[in-house]
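Reply to dn_fold:

You asked what the input looked like. This is it:
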Amino acid sequence: MDKLKQRWGIESNFQLIIIFIVFAITGSASVYVAKPFLVWIGMNKASFPEVWWGQWMYWLLRILLIFPIYQVLLLVFGWLFGQFTFFWGFEKKMLSRMGINYFREDES
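and this is what came back:
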């Protein structure tokens, strides 16, 4: 755990536990929120055709929707648990690794 604390720049075990709790809650919440969101926009399971690829398309759309929901909820839950600074830095690093450098500070 010391390597992880050093890598993330965390001072205490309590802060590490809070971060793990935020990751757990965010993962569960993003999966839970994706289904009602799809229903809200009119894309429930019944909207897809009854052919073999219809259900595949539904699940693919749901999984693709989970990713942005997860990113937003990670910041929200991080803020609620008092760890917004850590999760904002985590998000910026993850987005820059995906090639989205919009939120990255100027390093010069």
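The helical segments are 2-8, 13-40, 52-80, 84-97.
Hope that clears it up.
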